[in-house]
Fold this sequence. Notes:
Oligomer: single chain
Largest sheet: none
Amino acid sequence: MIIRYANDALLQTNNQLKSLSVEDANILGYHRDAIKLISQAIAELKIKVVTGKFTTTEEEIRFFKEIKPKFFSKLIYHAELYNMELKKPVGNPAIIRKYLNKKLDMISYFFKDNLEFYQYYRAGLTDMDEKIFVRGNEDIRLRIDVSYFEGDPSFSTSHDHVLSRILANELLSDYLHLQLEKLDRWYVPAPTSASDKDPFTMKWTDAKAALIELIYALHCNQSFNNGKINISDIASVFQDVFHINLGDYHRKFLEIKSRKINHTKYLDQLKEALLKKINEDDED
């Protein structure tokens, strides 16, 4: 049975990945070993799928929607980190920060390009599954990643690679934010005494989603540098000024866009608060 074999292979691959040695001095070697290990597992899995047969359509959907992306997302993740480490600048923390933020921007663009499918997957919908997770059922009226046409149709559906990329980018996003946090801790020394502390600290006490909504609004309005600035640079300043870690604000913005009612909840709240203040002052 293909599903049972695939699940066993996934468990074995995950255990083998855990056994690999991760050392800062040989991080490239670690990712190379991971890529080799996963590639071998995928090659063996492909043979089982191409030479075998799914017993039902539901089983085929389960494989291409739930199992295969777990293999490929790990392969993409380690391949991206390998390339990232190769090209990562050294020295100036500001340059490293810019490099990491640029990678986050690229991930954000990917999610924007695939927003409709991302929302479909995250909402747990299934009505399109037979079109996008069954081989040979592609519908060119739907947005299809060009990589699908370059792959093996006996081992690919129109959207399993896109899903693999989504899962990989979520892992990459978490990794990049962790690296930025480590960079901040290393680059900005903690106060050594009470006299070293900032005498005035202004902290953001509203919801993180509210600040993210505000940041994106200011960026869209080109309020800084005549619009010639990345959203990541604006977010970085706000996080430093208000002493807050916004986490994966790119992904949070996608959630804001997915709201069923009132996409600009916080901005509307600001407008109401200001108008109230203006009206009260007029009455005095």
